[in-house]
Automatic annotation (TrEMBL):
Protein name: Hydroxyacylglutathione hydrolase
Comment on bound cofactor: Binds 2 Zn(2+) ions per subunit.
Pathway: Secondary metabolite metabolism; methylglyoxal degradation; (R)-lactate from methylglyoxal: step 2/2
Organism: Rhodoplanes tepidamans (Rhodoplanes cryptolactis)
Gene: gloB
Pfam family, one: HAGH_C
The Metallo-beta-lactamase domain, residue ranges: 13-171
Enzyme Commission (EC) number: 3.1.2.6
Length: 255
């Protein structure tokens, strides 16, 4: 049976999301920004929390872990290579590992860059990927604990997933990301289409995610550092993609 997902806002601009296995009733929270918001989502869906799958150590992704574990006795899975501790962890995972949520299966990808041990959870059969703060719609996470080339390699790994993969990220940053992206590729028709779509979604009070990876590949400049038009836009024609990526990321930091 196909997985069901439930997306909800929490903190100021974080997203929480539940993934539910109808066959067994198992339900995982992808990250736990704050306990009460996850509990409200569980109440709304009628689902029972069995797992928390943590993408990285930042407090706005782990703040609810201890309280939720105490209340629900759920299993906490987290990345093995984070430099900062994550509370109440039962199992740590790295790329190549699989994680079960009832009968649903996630493949773990190492996506370092934002943090040193950041991971993504990809459910291939359900065509859904939880990418935390590595990839955002029309953006990517700040490169905090690694060098930009490491982040670029992580983004390439995500870019290699099938185009019809639905991407769930950790924050609602889409409109701000689009504003910046249009300074890099003002004439990209896919980006202009995404801008119109996202403006409509936000005006209607709706989330701009999930978004298909195929759409992101066409419109997100951080996935397009190896496309000549992006290199030209930052006056780096012919330079290695990782260097072009670093320049685009630096411009976003200053934007
Ligand atoms: Zn983060």
């Amino acid at each position: 049976m196909a997985a069901q997902t439930h997306l909800f806002k929490c903190l100021s601009d974080n997203y929480g999301v539940l993934i539910h296995d109808p066959a067994t009733g198992a339900t995982a929270a992808i990250d736990a920004p704050e306990a009460w918001a996850v509990d409200a989502a569980l109440k709304e869906t009628g689902w029972t929390l069995t797992d928390i799958l943590v993408t990285h150590h930042h407090g706005d992704h782990t703040g609810g872990v201890v309280e939720l574990k105490e209340r629900h006795g759920c299993k906490v899975t987290a990345p093995r290579h984070e430099k900062q501790p994550i509370p109440a962890v039962d199992a740590t995972v790295v790329e190549g590992d699989t994680v079960k949520v009832g009968t649903l299966t996630a493949k773990v990808l190492d996506t370092p860059g934002h943090t040193a041990g950041h991971i993504a959870y990809v459910f291939p059969a359900d065509k859904v990927a939880f990418v935390g703060d590595t990839l955002f719609s029309i953006g990517c996470g700040r490169v905090i604990e690694c060098t930009p080339d490491v982040m670029w390699a992580s983004l390439l790994k995500l870019r290699a997933l099938p185009d019809d993969t639905r991407i769930y990220c950790g924050h609602e940053y889409t409109l701000a990301n689009i504003k910046f992206a249009l300074t890099i590729e003002p004439d990209n028709p896919a980006l202009k289409a995404r801008a119109a779509e996202a403006e409509k979604q936000v005006a209607a009070g709706k989330p701009t995610i999930p978004v298909s990876l195929g759409e992101e590949k066409r419109a997100n400049p951080f996935l397009r550092a190896d496309v000549p038009v992006v290199a030209t836009a930052v006056k780096m024609s012919g330079k290695p993609a990782a260097e072009v990526f670093a320049e685009v990321r630096e411009r976003k930091n200053r934007f």
